[in-house]
Amino acid sequence: MSESKDKKSQLFLLKNAFYKDYKFSNKEILQNVHWLRHIISIIVGIVMGVLSVTGYPGFIAYLVSTCGFVAFYYSKFLEIDEDEFKWELLQEGFMSSLTLFAFSWILLYNILHV
Amino acid sequence: MVQDIIFILFLSVASTLLSEGVSWLLVYRTDSYKKSKANIDRLQAQLDKIKEQDSNTSTLLKKKQDKKGEKIEEALKIANKDLSLSKFKSMFFVAISMIGLFSYLNRIFDGVVVCKLPFVPIGFLQNISHRTIAGDDYTDCSMTFIYAMCSMFVRNNIQMILGTAPPKSKNPFLGGMDEKK
């Protein structure tokens, strides 16, 4: 696959995700949000599974933690003020992180409590 | 139960890798694909640049730039269409092998409770999560639900890692809404 030379690896981008001085392009921000969101949803899923939370509180915890995190990230670190882009960031990777969260929750719940 | 979940996850990862491999063989390594991908990247970069400048220019310049932006957006749309057309060949093959895999899984897990859900799925999801399972306990989960879930995040993330994710339409839920402007 041909990739432009100035394209940074996703690991590098993630490492620098919390440096305020680093200037990201929109595409890089979207990638970062995508991965950070997935990491958080796995963690939340594991916590829910270990605590054997059942029912809607689990989903509410997921929604609050990921959307809250994304909102915190773009307002505190990226200081974005375009509404359209904020909305795009909130949607980024939503379905796949939701399913990843549900999967890790189900897996842990079945290992520990069934 | 847990082995079943891991098995389904493993199959879903393997099938995604396989289908990406086939796509690479048939599509990604061809010159025409590379060319149109580079084209899209270039147009996208131009568009981003214009949008960035948009916020700090006078109204007179803004009009000019808006027109330019529209032109680039139009070109981008056409390029995206070309790209998805070129993927069609591999999509056909992938679809057939997915159907094969799914019917194989259906045969093994027919009527088997793969896992217990920690929640009761809402209405229409119950049809999927309770497929081929007898009884009224809706926390019993069938293979179909786990497989669908796995393939959703596995596929998405593997394509993201390999850099072959299909270009997103601007507004996946409200497709075509912003064309009215």
From TrEMBL, chain A:
It comes from Dictyostelium purpureum. It comes from the Eukaryota. Pfam families: EMC6 (PF07019). It is found in: Endoplasmic reticulum membrane. One of its GO terms (cellular component) is mitochondrion. Belongs to the EMC6 family. Keywords: Endoplasmic reticulum, Membrane, Transmembrane, Transmembrane helix. This is Rab5-interacting protein. Its main location: endoplasmic reticulum. It is a multi-pass membrane protein. The chain crosses the membrane at residues 35-53, 89-112. GO terms for biological process: mitochondrial respirasome assembly.
Automatic annotation (TrEMBL), chain B:
Keywords: Calcium, Calcium channel, Calcium transport, Coiled coil, Endoplasmic reticulum, Ion channel, Ion transport, Membrane, Transmembrane, Transmembrane helix, Transport. It comes from the Eukaryota. Pfam families: EMC3_TMCO1. The keyword Ion transport applies. It is found in: Endoplasmic reticulum membrane. GO terms for cellular component: cytoplasm; endoplasmic reticulum; endoplasmic reticulum membrane. It is a multi-pass membrane protein. InterPro entries: EMC3/TMCO1, TMCO1. GO terms for molecular function: calcium channel activity. The chain crosses the membrane at residues 6-27, 91-109. GO terms for biological process: endoplasmic reticulum calcium ion homeostasis. Belongs to the TMCO1 family. Calcium-selective channel required to prevent calcium stores from overfilling. This is Calcium load-activated calcium channel. It comes from Dictyostelium purpureum (Slime mold).
